[in-house]
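Model: Ready when you are.
Researcher: Fold this.
Model:
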Amino acid sequence: MEDLKKSLKMPLFGNTFSPKKTPPRKSASLSSLHTLDRSTREVELGLEYGPPAMNIGGQSWKFEDGQWIIESGGNASSREAQRLKKRNIQLEEENNLLKLKIEILLDMLTETTVEYHLMEKEVEDIKINH
């Protein structure tokens, strides 16, 4: 019975946790391409950096100035359409601002007219009472 108690008190694998040290890592990349400058990489790998382009449904698209632009064989009309859309948005915003300003001016005119009529009535009341 005493042997059983000792075996229960003694840990099976030891008291302390001591993991083995891991070996140092090897180099992340065995390639020497990261040491080459950009022009050498372009020559070696044929890399040309430019705006992204793709072909969808027979239409060429190019990413310029944060937007995808249709570029069907150098068709300038699509660029003109994009420019006109931007201009249209600008004019709509300006138009909304002008409508707001007109509404504010009409409110101011109404308020001034009401004040004028109230003052006119007060003047008439004073004339009648004196």
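Researcher: Now this one.
Model:
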Amino acid sequence: MASRRVPLVLLACGSFNPITNQHMRLFELARDHMHSTGQYQVVGGIVSPVSDGYGKQGLVLAEHRIAMAKLALRSSNWVTVDEWESQQPDWMETAVTMRYHYGRILKECEQSTGTHNDSSGNTVALSSPCPQLKLLCGADFLETFKIPGLWQDDHVEEVVGHFGLVCVSRGGLEPERAVHMSDTLSRHRRNIFLVREWVRNETSATEVRRALRRDLSVKYLIPDSVIEYIHQHNLYTHDSERINEDTVLRPLAKQAVKSLDD
């Protein structure tokens, strides 16, 4: 039965500053849910940390965020870390990042599709569907569509309408309401998969950083290997939290420039 399902790759974009157990848990929850639909077979997961150009306060260098993500995901046999987005000199829109990864998926799919000889000796291409790509996110991500100037309208259409979302509930947020309140999200609601997390985990990277600044334990919130890396490189201090302190978030700055050009 699984062979008749649509192969699916889940892509998570974000700061991962640092990656937490909750980030990794999203992938497991999403995979279980998509399998339970009977329509999809998840064949891979991608963690794509944002570039240093994002401009978010307290964002440590991408090389550290990449290294921590790789350490955290050593135990996973299906989720990998991709460096492309993090290595870009400027912040990349989510739609652009999704286009890049989908292009890679299509290329790999074309290269792996082989041929065979049928009973008449004719060469026939093997028909294997290429994986779809969907964006994996927390319920708070849906709220970002309401922030003025943060998203381009055509990018929302592309991310939600063309690719699709797998959204995992977090805390007291109501993703169903966010979908209902947005005309665009509501129009593409069949391409938005809402996943309920029954085992509550409120871990956030912001709280992890705050605890680290205060010399408090973060054991069992993030992997031990990541904790060790943080201590080795003296990350998440009072000084590091002031990085980009007076910087306008790059998506907002980029949209402001675009508005002036228009």
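Researcher: Key takeaway?
Model: The two ends are 51 Å apart (CA to CA).
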